[in-house]
Protein backbone atom coordinates (compact mmCIF):
# COMPACT_ATOMS: atom_id res chain seq x y z
CA UNK A 1 0.00 0.00 0.00
CA UNK A 2 1.38 3.42 -0.95
CA UNK A 3 1.95 5.63 2.06
CA UNK A 4 -0.42 8.50 2.57
CA UNK A 5 0.33 11.73 0.76
CA UNK A 6 -0.11 13.63 4.01
CA UNK A 7 3.12 12.07 5.31
CA UNK A 8 5.05 13.59 2.42
CA UNK A 9 6.19 17.08 1.61
CA UNK A 10 3.49 17.84 -0.89
CA UNK A 11 4.21 20.32 -3.64
CA UNK A 12 0.52 20.97 -4.31
CA UNK A 13 -2.04 19.97 -6.87
CA UNK A 14 -2.54 21.81 -10.10
CA UNK A 15 -5.39 24.27 -9.95
CA UNK A 16 -6.71 23.24 -13.37
CA UNK A 17 -8.58 20.02 -14.04
CA UNK A 18 -9.34 18.06 -17.15
CA UNK A 19 -12.83 17.31 -15.84
CA UNK A 20 -15.78 19.51 -16.53
CA UNK A 21 -17.50 21.38 -13.73
CA UNK A 22 -20.70 19.33 -14.08
CA UNK A 23 -19.01 15.93 -13.95
CA UNK A 24 -19.51 13.91 -10.75
CA UNK A 25 -16.56 13.76 -8.39
CA UNK A 26 -14.86 10.37 -8.31
CA UNK A 27 -14.22 8.63 -5.02
CA UNK A 28 -11.14 6.50 -5.74
CA UNK A 29 -8.13 6.29 -3.42
CA UNK A 30 -5.79 9.23 -3.02
CA UNK A 31 -2.84 9.09 -5.37
CA UNK A 32 0.63 10.62 -5.06
CA UNK A 33 2.57 11.33 -8.25
CA UNK A 34 6.21 12.28 -8.70
CA UNK A 35 6.74 15.07 -11.24
CA UNK A 36 9.34 17.63 -12.25
CA UNK A 37 8.69 21.11 -10.91
CA UNK A 38 11.29 23.09 -12.87
CA UNK A 39 10.48 22.23 -16.49
CA UNK A 40 8.18 24.79 -18.16
CA UNK A 41 5.63 23.05 -20.36
CA UNK A 42 6.39 19.64 -18.81
CA UNK A 43 6.06 20.16 -15.08
CA UNK A 44 6.52 23.41 -13.19
CA UNK A 45 5.58 24.72 -9.76
CA UNK A 46 4.22 28.26 -9.43
CA UNK A 47 4.94 30.49 -6.46
CA UNK A 48 1.51 29.71 -5.03
CA UNK A 49 2.35 25.99 -4.98
CA UNK A 50 0.18 24.91 -7.91
CA UNK A 51 1.72 22.77 -10.62
CA UNK A 52 1.05 22.62 -14.34
CA UNK A 53 2.41 21.13 -17.54
CA UNK A 54 1.99 18.22 -19.92
CA UNK A 55 3.11 15.62 -17.38
CA UNK A 56 0.67 17.02 -14.82
CA UNK A 57 -2.20 16.71 -17.30
CA UNK A 58 -1.14 13.15 -18.14
CA UNK A 59 -0.96 12.21 -14.45
CA UNK A 60 -4.42 13.58 -13.72
CA UNK A 61 -5.89 11.80 -16.73
CA UNK A 62 -4.38 8.49 -15.60
CA UNK A 63 -5.61 9.05 -12.04
CA UNK A 64 -9.15 9.68 -13.28
CA UNK A 65 -8.99 6.47 -15.34
CA UNK A 66 -8.00 4.65 -12.15
CA UNK A 67 -11.09 6.07 -10.45
CA UNK A 68 -9.44 8.89 -8.52
CA UNK A 69 -10.71 12.45 -8.85
CA UNK A 70 -7.95 14.95 -9.77
CA UNK A 71 -8.64 16.80 -6.51
CA UNK A 72 -7.34 13.71 -4.69
CA UNK A 73 -4.03 13.69 -6.57
CA UNK A 74 -0.98 15.08 -4.72
CA UNK A 75 2.26 15.95 -6.46
CA UNK A 76 5.79 15.68 -5.08
CA UNK A 77 9.05 16.66 -6.73
CA UNK A 78 10.91 13.81 -8.43
CA UNK A 79 14.41 14.93 -9.38
CA UNK A 80 16.09 12.77 -11.99
CA UNK A 81 18.41 10.92 -9.62
CA UNK A 82 15.60 10.05 -7.17
CA UNK A 83 12.84 8.68 -9.41
CA UNK A 84 13.64 4.99 -8.96
CA UNK A 85 14.11 5.46 -5.22
CA UNK A 86 10.75 7.19 -4.82
CA UNK A 87 9.07 4.23 -6.44
CA UNK A 88 11.06 1.54 -4.65
CA UNK A 89 10.41 3.16 -1.28
CA UNK A 90 6.68 3.44 -2.12
CA UNK A 91 6.73 7.21 -1.60
CA UNK A 92 4.74 7.72 -4.80
CA UNK A 93 2.13 5.70 -6.66
CA UNK A 94 3.73 6.48 -10.00
CA UNK A 95 6.16 8.89 -11.63
CA UNK A 96 5.34 11.14 -14.59
CA UNK A 97 8.50 13.25 -14.79
CA UNK A 98 10.00 13.39 -18.30
CA UNK A 99 11.06 9.84 -17.44
CA UNK A 100 12.87 8.26 -20.38
CA UNK A 101 12.35 4.52 -20.79
CA UNK A 102 15.73 2.72 -20.71
CA UNK A 103 16.83 -0.87 -20.17
CA UNK A 104 18.77 0.13 -17.08
CA UNK A 105 15.76 1.74 -15.47
CA UNK A 106 13.51 -1.17 -16.45
CA UNK A 107 15.66 -3.37 -14.25
CA UNK A 108 14.37 -1.42 -11.24
CA UNK A 109 10.90 -0.13 -12.22
CA UNK A 110 8.08 -0.88 -14.66
CA UNK A 111 7.00 1.55 -17.36
CA UNK A 112 3.69 2.20 -19.09
CA UNK A 113 3.76 4.08 -22.38
CA UNK A 114 5.37 5.71 -24.12
CA UNK A 115 3.20 8.80 -23.89
CA UNK A 116 5.68 11.22 -25.49
CA UNK A 117 8.67 10.91 -27.84
CA UNK A 118 11.39 13.55 -28.14
CA UNK A 119 15.16 13.89 -28.55
CA UNK A 120 18.12 15.47 -26.82
CA UNK A 121 19.10 18.95 -27.96
CA UNK A 122 21.25 21.93 -26.98
CA UNK A 123 20.31 25.24 -25.38
CA UNK A 124 22.70 28.20 -25.56
CA UNK A 125 22.67 31.94 -25.02
CA UNK A 126 21.29 33.77 -28.02
CA UNK A 127 24.58 35.62 -28.38
CA UNK A 128 26.53 32.35 -28.72
CA UNK A 129 27.50 31.79 -32.36
CA UNK A 130 30.10 29.10 -31.69
CA UNK A 131 27.88 26.21 -30.61
CA UNK A 132 25.55 25.28 -33.46
CA UNK A 133 24.75 21.66 -32.58
CA UNK A 134 26.34 18.46 -31.30
CA UNK A 135 28.89 18.44 -34.13
CA UNK A 136 30.35 21.66 -32.76
CA UNK A 137 31.03 20.15 -29.32
CA UNK A 138 34.74 19.94 -30.02
CA UNK A 139 36.19 22.40 -27.55
CA UNK A 140 37.36 20.99 -24.23
CA UNK A 141 37.02 24.48 -22.70
CA UNK A 142 33.26 24.51 -23.29
CA UNK A 143 31.22 23.76 -20.22
CA UNK A 144 28.12 21.70 -20.93
CA UNK A 145 25.52 21.41 -18.17
CA UNK A 146 23.05 18.59 -17.59
CA UNK A 147 21.32 16.98 -14.62
CA UNK A 148 22.79 14.22 -12.50
CA UNK A 149 21.00 10.93 -13.07
CA UNK A 150 19.58 11.90 -16.47
CA UNK A 151 19.99 10.05 -19.77
CA UNK A 152 21.18 13.37 -21.24
CA UNK A 153 24.16 13.52 -18.91
CA UNK A 154 24.99 9.88 -19.58
CA UNK A 155 24.98 10.45 -23.35
CA UNK A 156 27.42 13.33 -22.94
CA UNK A 157 29.67 11.11 -20.83
CA UNK A 158 29.52 8.34 -23.43
CA UNK A 159 29.96 10.41 -26.60
CA UNK A 160 31.37 13.83 -25.78
CA UNK A 161 33.39 13.43 -22.57
CA UNK A 162 36.67 13.99 -24.43
CA UNK A 163 35.37 17.07 -26.21
CA UNK A 164 33.63 19.13 -23.53
CA UNK A 165 33.59 19.56 -19.78
CA UNK A 166 30.38 18.15 -18.32
CA UNK A 167 28.96 19.89 -15.28
CA UNK A 168 26.12 18.07 -13.52
CA UNK A 169 23.61 20.13 -11.56
CA UNK A 170 20.63 18.94 -9.51
CA UNK A 171 18.06 20.55 -11.84
CA UNK A 172 17.72 22.01 -15.31
CA UNK A 173 16.61 25.31 -13.80
CA UNK A 174 19.99 25.45 -12.04
CA UNK A 175 21.70 24.72 -15.38
CA UNK A 176 19.79 27.49 -17.14
CA UNK A 177 20.53 29.95 -14.33
CA UNK A 178 24.23 29.05 -14.52
CA UNK A 179 24.25 29.64 -18.27
CA UNK A 180 22.50 32.97 -17.89
CA UNK A 181 25.30 33.95 -15.49
CA UNK A 182 27.87 32.61 -18.02
CA UNK A 183 29.08 29.93 -15.61
CA UNK A 184 28.36 27.29 -18.31
CA UNK A 185 28.20 27.56 -22.10
CA UNK A 186 25.31 25.24 -22.98
CA UNK A 187 22.61 23.09 -21.44
CA UNK A 188 21.57 19.73 -22.83
CA UNK A 189 18.44 17.67 -22.28
CA UNK A 190 15.33 16.79 -24.27
CA UNK A 191 14.13 19.35 -26.79
CA UNK A 192 10.61 19.64 -25.36
CA UNK A 193 12.11 20.60 -21.99
CA UNK A 194 14.58 23.13 -23.41
CA UNK A 195 11.86 24.69 -25.57
CA UNK A 196 10.00 25.64 -22.40
CA UNK A 197 12.97 27.68 -21.18
CA UNK A 198 13.28 29.40 -24.56
CA UNK A 199 9.60 30.33 -24.38
CA UNK A 200 10.27 31.88 -20.97
CA UNK A 201 13.32 33.87 -22.10
CA UNK A 202 13.20 34.19 -25.92
CA UNK A 203 15.45 37.27 -25.96
CA UNK A 204 18.21 35.44 -24.09
CA UNK A 205 18.09 31.76 -25.08
CA UNK A 206 17.91 29.67 -28.25
CA UNK A 207 17.90 26.03 -29.35
CA UNK A 208 20.60 24.95 -31.80
CA UNK A 209 21.00 21.96 -34.08
CA UNK A 210 18.76 18.94 -34.47
CA UNK A 211 17.97 16.37 -31.76
CA UNK A 212 20.75 13.80 -31.41
CA UNK A 213 19.00 11.06 -29.47
CA UNK A 214 15.59 9.41 -29.30
CA UNK A 215 13.80 9.46 -25.96
CA UNK A 216 10.46 7.90 -25.03
CA UNK A 217 8.75 9.12 -21.87
CA UNK A 218 6.89 6.57 -19.78
CA UNK A 219 4.88 6.44 -16.58
CA UNK A 220 7.12 4.83 -13.97
CA UNK A 221 5.54 2.25 -11.69
CA UNK A 222 6.72 -0.01 -8.88
CA UNK A 223 7.94 -3.35 -10.19
CA UNK A 224 4.96 -5.69 -10.53
CA UNK A 225 2.34 -2.99 -9.88
CA UNK A 226 -1.01 -4.62 -10.77
CA UNK A 227 -2.26 -1.30 -12.15
CA UNK A 228 0.17 -1.45 -15.09
CA UNK A 229 -2.44 -2.66 -17.59
CA UNK A 230 -4.93 -0.06 -16.39
CA UNK A 231 -2.37 2.75 -16.76
CA UNK A 232 -1.54 1.52 -20.28
CA UNK A 233 -5.26 1.51 -21.06
CA UNK A 234 -5.52 5.09 -19.76
CA UNK A 235 -2.66 6.32 -21.96
CA UNK A 236 -4.25 4.73 -25.04
CA UNK A 237 -7.58 6.32 -24.21
CA UNK A 238 -5.88 9.70 -23.75
CA UNK A 239 -4.41 9.49 -27.25
CA UNK A 240 -7.62 8.16 -28.78
CA UNK A 241 -10.14 10.61 -27.32
CA UNK A 242 -8.23 13.77 -28.25
CA UNK A 243 -7.02 14.61 -24.75
CA UNK A 244 -3.36 13.99 -25.66
CA UNK A 245 -3.62 16.50 -28.51
CA UNK A 246 -5.29 19.05 -26.25
CA UNK A 247 -2.61 18.71 -23.58
CA UNK A 248 0.18 18.89 -26.16
CA UNK A 249 -1.22 22.02 -27.78
CA UNK A 250 -1.61 23.69 -24.40
CA UNK A 251 1.87 22.86 -23.11
CA UNK A 252 4.30 21.90 -25.89
CA UNK A 253 5.34 23.11 -29.32
CA UNK A 254 7.08 26.14 -27.89
CA UNK A 255 10.04 28.14 -29.19
CA UNK A 256 9.02 27.67 -32.82
CA UNK A 257 9.64 23.93 -32.75
CA UNK A 258 7.08 21.53 -34.28
CA UNK A 259 4.94 19.74 -31.75
CA UNK A 260 5.86 16.04 -31.46
CA UNK A 261 3.25 13.56 -32.74
CA UNK A 262 1.38 11.23 -30.41
CA UNK A 263 3.31 7.98 -29.93
CA UNK A 264 1.93 4.46 -30.08
CA UNK A 265 1.33 3.18 -26.56
CA UNK A 266 2.75 -0.34 -26.13
CA UNK A 267 1.83 -3.19 -23.83
CA UNK A 268 5.51 -3.57 -22.95
CA UNK A 269 7.50 -0.42 -23.79
From TrEMBL:
Q: Which UniProt keywords apply?
A: Signal, Transport
A Gene Ontology annotation in the biological process aspect, one of them, is: amino acid transport
Q: List each copy of the Solute-binding protein family 3/N-terminal domain by range.
A: 30-255
Name the SMART domains for this protein.
PBPb
* SUPFAM superfamilies referenced in this protein's UniProt entry, alphabetically: Periplasmic binding protein-like II (SSF53850)
Q: Which residues form a coiled coil?
A: none
Pfam families from the UniProt entry: SBP_bac_3
Instruction: Give a GO cellular-component term.
Output: outer membrane-bounded periplasmic space
Q: Which family does it belong to?
A: Belongs to the bacterial solute-binding protein 3 family.
Name this protein carries in UniProt? Amino acid ABC transporter substrate-binding protein (PAAT family)
